[in-house]
């Protein structure tokens, strides 16, 4: 067989391996996915840490368990280059599905696979996944892109968020965010789940025009839960009565009645079910 024929045959073999590997991802068959990797496979995945080895299928099975039903896992623009016993493949990959908590996810990311020929056939020895970041100072991952997206490099950068932003480590970030929606009209801007699919590593809310960030405790990374003390989040609003009644109706506890304070503001304090104190503040209306 000529060199061209050997390369063509190798590419066909590799394509079949990758297609079966992607099919195993769709079916959430961790054992089959793992079987396509070499024993020394290195993985640079979207999730932390920066680098890991594909030592077994247990971690993948745990991740699969965070999804309902089969996964959407599709490779587009797959290109394979093979030479001797080494090959590389690149593709744009679409991941979609529904998490166990009902959240629906869909994103495109870039994927590179390094393969090597073994006695058992072609095996994936290197897996690299990545998404681009918006270079506007926000460092936000560009998970809203798709293969047809175009970037306007002349568009002005989004301004950074102003002021000091509170970042709360709460016992249940998901429940906290839902409560803040009912009590304070919070609008969710973004959320990111940890690898366990349950805890939030980041939740960005907007309340009264300002940003508030939440995350769950991660004691294994030096971020255990500690009961909040000595912190009050102030909401300076036009209609204090409206904000107060809505929060109390949602379940906030009154710790200081809403009344005209000695310094002249219409002021009161509440405690939410997660131990965070809030102040509702408004200027006293003059007749």
UniProtKB/TrEMBL annotation:
Residues 161-283 form the VOC domain. InterPro entries: Glyas_Bleomycin-R_OHBP_Dase (IPR029068), Glyas_Fos-R_dOase_dom (IPR004360), NTF2-like_dom_sf (IPR032710), SnoaL-like (IPR037401), VOC_core (IPR037523). CDD domains: VOC_like. This is Nuclear transport factor 2 family protein. Gene3D superfamilies: 2,3-Dihydroxybiphenyl 1,2-Dioxygenase, domain 1, 3.10.450.50. PANTHER family: BNAUNNG04460D PROTEIN-RELATED (PTHR34109), VOC DOMAIN-CONTAINING PROTEIN (PTHR34109:SF1).
